[in-house]
Design a protein that fits this description.
36% of the residues lie in helices and 28% in strands. Helix 1 crosses helix 12 (296-312), helix 5 (100-114) packs parallel to helix 10 (193-207) and helix 7 (153-165) crosses helix 8. The protein has helices spanning 11-22, 24-31, 60-63, 79-90, 100-114, 131-138, 153-165, 169-178, 187-190, 193-207, 226-234, 296-312, 353-363, 393-404, and strands at 2-7, 35-41, 54-56, 70-73, 94-97, 119-120, 144-150, 217-218, 237-248, 251-262, 274-281, 285-292, 330-331, 338-348, 368-375, 381-388, 391-392, 409-418. The strands form two sheets. Strands 7, 8, 9, 10, 11, 12, 13, 14, 15, 16, 17 and 18 form a twelve-stranded mixed β-sheet that branches. A six-stranded parallel β-sheet has the order 3-2-1-4-5-6, sandwiched between helices. Strand 4, helix 4 and strand 5 (94-97) form a beta-alpha-beta unit. The protein folds into three domains: 2-128 and 297-312, Rossmann fold; 141-291, Dihydrodipicolinate Reductase, domain 2 (2-Layer Sandwich), CATH 3.30.360; 336-418, Alpha-Beta Plaits, CATH 3.30.70. It binds NADP nicotinamide-adenine-dinucleotide phosphate (NAP) and L-homoserine.
Length: 420
């Protein structure tokens, strides 16, 4: 019998304990051994838990318990789970975690500490979708050209409801929290950080790149307005929060941001809590992985898949490399990212203004692809909405700074990237 200790019996931890019990027969048949959740850890002992396992508030009672074979870390945070996972590995216990924030900061140290002890993390990225397994194993023959996708269920759920049903931001965020999709601190979701944590994990497996969240471009969905949504619809785009990793020459772009993508693309049709990740390999071509990106049972499904793999003895190096990778690929500085942009700007509604705007953009070598003018509630002020041809991120930032300095421009100049 294999005994499991669960650090964190919350949304995911509770589902793990329940599924291990409810689906014990199929799990035992697949793993070849009986797998039982022995104990779990929470912060608040007064909260009622709907599980049949011993509960305590002392994480060391699990990681130091000689009877526990596999520690499952589902508590969230970075430094506290790092110390506990380290201790569990040092005690010779296999570890399964769904904690992408932990891995975004400590995956290389943990790989080192783990050595030959299994440390698995399928549930950390894209919830119930086995995209980690696909990258580590299924696509092992390929150089990875790009990874692009919807990697945060909360944001996709919110964007779908806001765009299709006109739902209010705060209300729909609360709903995502009640459904168990959001992080304990939901600014990780709406600020793009959670998707960035996942992207960094995928980039390590795909490219061997050891970057931290601070090193890459991260923007969230907080500043999207109804004007942007209406423009996107008019010009045949959907707005999605995307994680993008792309090989460009000897560099790799890593970025997370709200993105306008063509409405007819497959990813544009991925709605609600569903995630979808497209991976392009140099030999296999384009592959796509789709499924629920968040939620207790969907995530627990991936956690238990890792447990079964460990019990079967399917081990492998944590990040998928048995030897050092001499790819020469480096993280591309964010200023060098090249893409198309959408710009929203409020200006005096008078002659000569459009020329001033386009000539300012022209000074930075930015050429306009399309333009739309919309009235505002103030008869003297108009909204100008542009899309540009491809340009470099640094030029776009400089152009926006210059635009803001024009007398005819009012307030902020908003920008969103476009991927076709
Ligand atoms: P959650 O509902 O907030 O559960 C966290 C659990 O950990 C709670 O039981 C909490 O105790 C316990 N905990 C937190 N800090 C603790 C501490 N210092 N000592 C003891 N217990 C502690 O979170 P969740 O949604 O299940 O997420 C868990 C992890 O999975 C996170 O890393 C998250 O990013 C990741 N994840 C979540 C999802 C999802 O859809 N929810 C999907 C993929 C990955 P109390 O109950 O007493 O507060
Ligand atoms: N908060 C995360 C999301 C959970 O909404 O995608 C799954 O990782």
């Amino acid at each position: 019998m294999v005994k499991i200790g669960i650090l964190g019996v919350g949304t995911v931890g509770e589902s793990v304990a329940k599924i291990l019990e409810a689906n014990a027969d199929i799990i035992e048949a697949r793993a070849g051994k009986k797998i039982v959740a022995k104990s779990g850890v929470v912060r608040n002992m007064n909260k009622k838990r709907d599980v049949q396992i011993a509960i305590s508030d002392d994480p060391y009672s699990v990681v130091d318990d000689p009877e526990i074979d596999i520690v499952v870390e589902l508590m969230g945070g970075v430094e506290e789970p790092y110390a506990l996972v380290k201790r569990a590995l040092e005690n010779g216990k296999a570890v399964v975690t769904a904690n992408k924030a932990l891995l975004a900061y400590h995956r290389y140290e943990l790989q080192e500490i783990a050595g030959n002890i299994p440390l698995m993390y399928e549930a950390s990225t894209a919830g119930g979708i086995p995209v980690i397994g696909a990258l580590r194993t299924g696509l092992a023959a390929n150089h990875i050209e790009s990874i692009q996708g919807i990697m945060n269920g909360t944001c996709n759920y919110m964007l779908t409801k806001m765009i299709n049903e006109g739902a209010q931001y705060d209300e729909i965020l609360r709903e995502a929290q009640e459904l168990g999709y959001a992080e304990a601190d939901p600014t990780f979701d709406v600020g793009g950080f959670d998707a960035a944590h996942k992207l960094l994990i995928l980039a390590s497996i795909a490219y061997g790149i050891d970057a931290k969240p601070e090193d890459i471009l991260i923007e969230g969905i907080e500043n999207i307005t109804q004007t942007d949504v209406a423009f996107a619809k008019e010009f045949g785009y959907e707005i999605k929060l995307l994680g993008i990793a792309k090989k460009v020459g000897e560099g790799v772009e890593l970025r997370v941001h709200a993105t306008m993508i063509p409405s007819e693309s497959m990813i544009a049709k991925v709605d609600g809590v569903m995630n979808a990740v497209t991976v392009v390999g140099d030999r296999v071509g384009e592959t796509m992985y789709y499924g629920p990106g968040a939620g207790g049972d969907a995530t627990a499904s991936a956690v238990i898949a890792d447990i079964v793999d460990i019990v079967r003895g399917n081990q492998g190096p944590m990040l998928g490399y048995k030897k050092g990778l001499e790819s020469g690929l480096k993280l591309l500085p964010k200023e060098q990212i090249v893409t198309q942009y959408y710009i929203r700007i409020e200006v005096d509604d008078k002659s000569g203004v459009l020329a001033a705007i386009t000539s300012t953009l022209g000074e930075f070598g930015i050429s306009i692809e399309s333009m739309l003018q919309k009235p505002t509630s103030d008869a003297h002020i108009a909204k100008l909405l542009f899309t540009t041809h491809k340009t470099q991120e640094s030029k776009m930032h400089d152009a926006i700074t210059a635009l803001k300095m024009l007398d005819v421009v009012h307030g902020n100049v908003a920008m969103m990237r476009i991927e076709k």
